[in-house]
Design a protein that fits this description.
The complex is a heterodimer of chains A (113) and B (111). Chain A contains no helices and eleven strands. Chain A has strands at 4-7, 10-13, 19-25, 31-38, 42-51, 54-57, 65-66, 76-78, 87-94, 103-104, 108-112. Chain B has 111 residues and is an all-beta fold. In chain B, strand 6 (55-58) and strand 7 (61-66) form a beta hairpin. Classes of the chains: A mainly beta (113), B mainly beta (111).
């Protein structure tokens, strides 16, 4: 089954404790991206990747890192999480080289205390 | 950045048609999209329309595009309770490497 898989789906952590949210897609897509969804603010792009080893910042990259060492994986790293990073995070991939027909994961709900 | 505007809430009776409206700002957007988000799930692409089209129909879904007014609408015919969800309008960003989403319209279908 074609899918984008995120882990963990739910996480409660404390300020400053490094964490990684993994994202993996099995559709051989070139393009991958991370969004966060917040009430009243909608979806905002954090980072995207057009290809292996090629990443760039979205609208809200502060406090986040990403890497794209393999085509299928695009982890989101929070080196020192803060409460304002409490959010619902979505990973997405696209068969196009740009954003377009996005396939979304089911989301990772992160709470930073 | 660009703003995509949608009304936040719509309630319809089962069997009626639903019309969700959206206005966008970037006249250079090549494609415009409608996504659906069910509770506890990620967004799912419903349909998209190329900017040189006025209308696209796909089973119960009809998308209308008015480029002059930068207005996009999604009509769902014979709305069912299973259509209850949040619907997002989206346009391509200037770079093409992101989609700019509206804040979503929450559709409630009552029996």
């Amino acid at each position: 089954e074609a899918q984008v898989t995120q882990n963990p789906r739910y996480l409660i952590t404390v300020t400053g404790k490094k964490l990684t949210v993994t994202c993996s897609q099995n559709m051989n897509h070139e393009y991958m991206s991370w969004y966060r969804q917040d009430p009243g603010l909608g979806l905002r792009q954090i980072y995207y990747s057009m290809n292996v080893e090629v990443t760039d910042k979205g609208d809200v990259p502060e406090g986040y890192k990403v890497s794209r060492k393999e085509k299928r994986n695009f982890p989101l790293i929070l080196e020192s999480p803060s409460p304002n990073q409490t959010s619902l995070y979505f990973c997405a991939s696209s068969p196009w080289f740009v954003a377009g027909e996005l396939f979304f994961g089911e989301g990772s709900r992160l709470t930073v205390l | 950045g660009e703003d995509v505007e949608q009304s936040l809430f719509l309630s319809v009776r089962e069997g009626d048609s639903s019309v969700i409206n959206c206005t966008y700002t970037d006249s250079s957007s090549t494609y415009l999209y409608w996504y659906k988000q069910e509770p506890g799930a990620g967004l799912q692409l419903l349909t998209y329309i190329f900017s040189n089209m006025d209308m696209k129909q796909d089973q119960r879904l009809t998308v209308l595009l008015n480029k002059k007014d930068k207005h996009l609408s999604l009509r769902i015919a014979d709305t069912q309770t299973g259509d209850s969800a949040i619907y997002f309008c989206a346009e391509s960003s200037n770079s093409g490497y992101a989609l700019n989403f509206g804040k979503g319209t929450s559709l409630l279908v009552t029996p």
